[in-house]
Structures are given as C-alpha cells and as structure tokens.
Amino acid sequence: MEKILIIHTGGTISMTENQSLGIVVPSDSHPLSENLAYLKQTASIEEDHLFDLPSPHVTPTHMLKLAKHIEMKLKEKPYQGVVVTHGTDTLEETAYFLDLYLTVDAAVVITGAMRSSNEVGADGLYNLIGAVRVAKDPESMNKGVLVVMNDEIHSSAYCIKTSSSSVATFQSPQFGPIGILTKQEVYFYHKWIEREKIHFQTVTKCIPLIKAFAGMDQAFMRAIQTLPIDGLVIEGFGQGNLPPETVAVIEEIVAEGIIVVMVSRSFKGVVQPTYAYPGGGKDLKDKGVIFVKRLSGPKARLKLLALLEAGYHRARIEAILEK
Ligand code: ASP
C-alpha cells in the first residue's frame, strides 16, 4: 500500500461546533483522527499534528516551518504523498508558499473544510479522503502543490477562496481546475506549465499588500511610505491602473530602491501596461512598477517575499516576476 503522511495544521477541518452556543471551536483531539478507518484500508497512513491554528493565525513563519517539516519527513521515509489539512482562509497562501519552496518529487496536496466535523453536511472527512486519493495517484507527482476540495483539483498558483461559506469555495477563476475526482477515478486534464522554485530560508521582509479604490489619494500612499517596507504589492484597477494622486509617492518609493509590484484587483485577466494617462499602467511601468501577470495579490506578495529573501537583485526579480 502507498505510504501517505497527513500533517494537520488546524482550521475548521479540525474543529467542532458547540451546538448550544452556535460557535465553532478547536477540539482537544483531531476529530478526523477517529474516522480514518476507511482511509487506512486504502493506504498506509501516518499522522502528524504540527500546529492547531485557525488559518488567520498562520504566518509565513509557520509556512516555512511546515515546508521544512515536509522536506525533513520526505528525507526520513519514502512517502508517496503528503496531505496537509489547513484552515481555508489562508490555505491558498500556504499552498503557494509550499509550491515555491519545495523541490520534492512526492505529491503534496492541501485540503480543508468549510463545515466543522459535527455539522450537518460536514465536508472535512470527504475532502481528506479526496486529498489522499490524489496524493496516492502516480499522476499527481511533479504537478506542484495541489489544492483538493469538493472533488476538484486546483493548482496552488491559481486557486482562490471565492466564497465565505460554500463548500465549492476554491476556484481557479481564470483557468479552471486542473483535474477532478469522480467516485472511482482521479482525472487530470490540465498541466501547469510554468513553475518557479526559489531557494530561501528566512521570511523577514515587510511587504504590505494594498488594494486600489476610487479616490485613493496621496495621503494614503504617504502613510504606506512611512512604514519600514521592503516591497509593496498593489492590486490596481483592471489592467493595472491607479488614481493619478498616488503616482508621485510611488515614484519616490521606487527611487528608494523598493520594489513595487502591480497585480489586478480583478480576479480574471492579467495586468499589462496599456494606458498612458497619469496613473495608467504604461505611466506606472515607465516609472518602475513591475507588472505581475496571473497571480493574485496575496500570491504575488509571497513570490516577492521569497525572491527578496533569496537575495536576488532588482533586475533578476523583475525578469522572474514579469515572465
Ligand atoms: N476560519 C477558518 C480557518 O481558516 C475557516 C476554515 O478553516 O474554513 O481556520
């Protein structure tokens, strides 16, 4: 039988609902551990409890610890796959972080739940079974870190949590899932063609992520400029445009040697330097803003973090981010 390691990190998948109070709380023991009998008939399962965190408490420091833990475990034993259980709020960030960091052959799959273990229609055990099925499948190897929820397989770079409550929350709006699970099969039908590995060992940089809004002004940008920032990611309008009042400060930030990255606040399409009016993408690009296609703000932020931690200089960072 294939050896699969399950690493628990917390989240709703490890919580139970207190039905009298109507609140969801962490439980003393992992509620799914008692329900693994079915899985244990299909694979040789080992379990690790690394953290017990709601995922809004997860930071890049935890992500790095998890990445190193996976690396270490795979050196110790030839697991065919690793399944990480995680809260859904920041799952897409941990998944992408792992993908940037890990250079392992084993399948790495991350899953979570939208409903706690004792709620009607709880999806945790179902998603965990799906994640293990994908982790066991030889086709899952070398496909990057995969997000498996609700019978779909998503690549970590493109999936986002789209709904605050639906079990179908994880979607890849631009490209769709790369595979699906049926009752009997795991089907892959897309291949992720561009993957980046970045060698970094620390997560120290301060990189705020801000979102453009109508009327965003100079005072707002000045407030950002006073922070001790190492980089800045902006979710601009459409193809990467901003209100003209922000441009002078952005120019100053770039002149200080700080990398400013533009992604779109639209969740489909890509940024490109099209408009030359003040604050338009072409204007910003000419002033040194780097345009990142395809990634969401939180993921572009993690990629910039990894690149800065790796000690790359601006030209190399620009070349990688603008690819
Ligand atoms: N707030 C929870 C968390 O991310 C939500 C979930 O797991 O679905 O930990």
TrEMBL record:
<feature type="active site" description="O-isoaspartyl threonine intermediate">
    <location>
        <position position="12"/>
    </location>
</feature>
<feature type="active site">
    <location>
        <position position="12"/>
    </location>
</feature>
<comment type="similarity">
    <text>Belongs to the asparaginase 1 family.</text>
</comment>
<keyword id="KW-0378">Hydrolase</keyword>
<feature type="binding site">
    <location>
        <position position="55"/>
    </location>
    <ligand>
        <name>substrate</name>
    </ligand>
</feature>
<dbReference type="InterPro" id="IPR006034">
    <property type="entry name" value="Asparaginase/glutaminase-like"/>
</dbReference>
<dbReference type="Pfam" id="PF00710">
    <property type="entry name" value="Asparaginase"/>
</dbReference>
<feature type="domain" description="Asparaginase/glutaminase C-terminal">
    <location>
        <begin position="209"/>
        <end position="320"/>
    </location>
</feature>
<dbReference type="GO" id="GO:0004067">
    <property type="term" value="F:asparaginase activity"/>
</dbReference>
<dbReference type="Pfam" id="PF17763">
    <property type="entry name" value="Asparaginase_C"/>
</dbReference>
<dbReference type="InterPro" id="IPR027473">
    <property type="entry name" value="L-asparaginase_C"/>
</dbReference>
<feature type="binding site">
    <location>
        <begin position="88"/>
        <end position="89"/>
    </location>
    <ligand>
        <name>substrate</name>
    </ligand>
</feature>
<dbReference type="InterPro" id="IPR037152">
    <property type="entry name" value="L-asparaginase_N_sf"/>
</dbReference>
<dbReference type="GO" id="GO:0006528">
    <property type="term" value="P:asparagine metabolic process"/>
</dbReference>
<dbReference type="InterPro" id="IPR040919">
    <property type="entry name" value="Asparaginase_C"/>
</dbReference>
<dbReference type="InterPro" id="IPR020827">
    <property type="entry name" value="Asparaginase/glutaminase_AS1"/>
</dbReference>
<feature type="domain" description="L-asparaginase N-terminal">
    <location>
        <begin position="3"/>
        <end position="192"/>
    </location>
</feature>
<feature type="active site">
    <location>
        <position position="88"/>
    </location>
</feature>
<dbReference type="InterPro" id="IPR027474">
    <property type="entry name" value="L-asparaginase_N"/>
</dbReference>
<dbReference type="InterPro" id="IPR027475">
    <property type="entry name" value="Asparaginase/glutaminase_AS2"/>
</dbReference>
<protein>
    <recommendedName>
        <fullName>asparaginase</fullName>
        <ecNumber>3.5.1.1</ecNumber>
    </recommendedName>
</protein>
<comment type="subunit">
    <text>Homotetramer.</text>
</comment>
<dbReference type="InterPro" id="IPR004550">
    <property type="entry name" value="AsnASE_II"/>
</dbReference>
<dbReference type="InterPro" id="IPR036152">
    <property type="entry name" value="Asp/glu_Ase-like_sf"/>
</dbReference>
